[in-house]
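input
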Amino acid sequence: MAELKRRQLVPIAVGRDEAKLAVIGLDADVETRVAVIDDADSVDRALAGVTAVINCAGPFLDTAELVAAAALRLGIHYLDVTAEQASARATFEHFDEAARRSGVLVIPALGFYGGLADLLVSALTADWERVDDIRLVVALDSWQPTLGTRITGHRNTARRLAVVRGQLRPVPEPPEELVLDLPEPFGRQDVVELPLSEVVTITRHIRVSELHSYMNQAPLRDLRDPTTPPPSVDESGRSPQTFLLDARVRRNAAVRHGIIRGKDIYAVTAPLVCEATERILNGFAKRTGAAAAGEGFDARQFLAALSPREFTVEIASHEGGW
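output
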């Protein structure tokens, strides 16, 4: 809400529980509405008169189809922040044609997981028609998960997908583990293959033969520990957690390398999805229909608009291997 208001957009808070909406600390001038997840009419009423809906209500396997369908019935833009591969795939598959007919955009996975990597890879590959390899690594110094993250983890049991020989294929069990030398401040890290919604968004619009995503092991131990507390934030609304997103793309002998550094994976999601919403409303989207972030916007302009306020971006090119 704060990020929307900072951009002089008028937010409406929609939730499943009126009592909870009343106690979450919204500003007095924010209108609230109630929608019940299994009542399509209540969702339509909650979205009446708006121009775009940002779905933050996970698990998205349970909410995305309902909310996106309501958005298209009402002719409004739909965005969500899912990290769930199955949800992002279903949104692309089910709503592209209807969104084109309605002249609106449907953009799933426009958060730290999914959208940020998609934008970085899109910026790196803008003039390439095909890519041989993409390797993504997310490194976190710690992970204090929200309740929503924990609930989604229990709900999302689908096999994770990577790209092997040009096809989406399940990641082997157990997944690949590597030791990688990452940029500062992380250095040498034990990582494990852990693809999230970025694999679905990137392959939506980039031809790639091999695409693999990894995460360092330390934050995953935090995530698996039931005693790890939820995020604590400072007066700016951010936790002290630091992150690194490292993207390397190769075509033949040419390699391009992109790095994004920042703080708090949850806090970065709001400016990402709000930047997209503002660009849509101001007519800066490249197309209608169901689209990934890098497909719907100019990726370099998008990242530049958020840097260095939200994170820093570095891009380099060279010849040779990784």
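quick obs: The mean pLDDT is 95.
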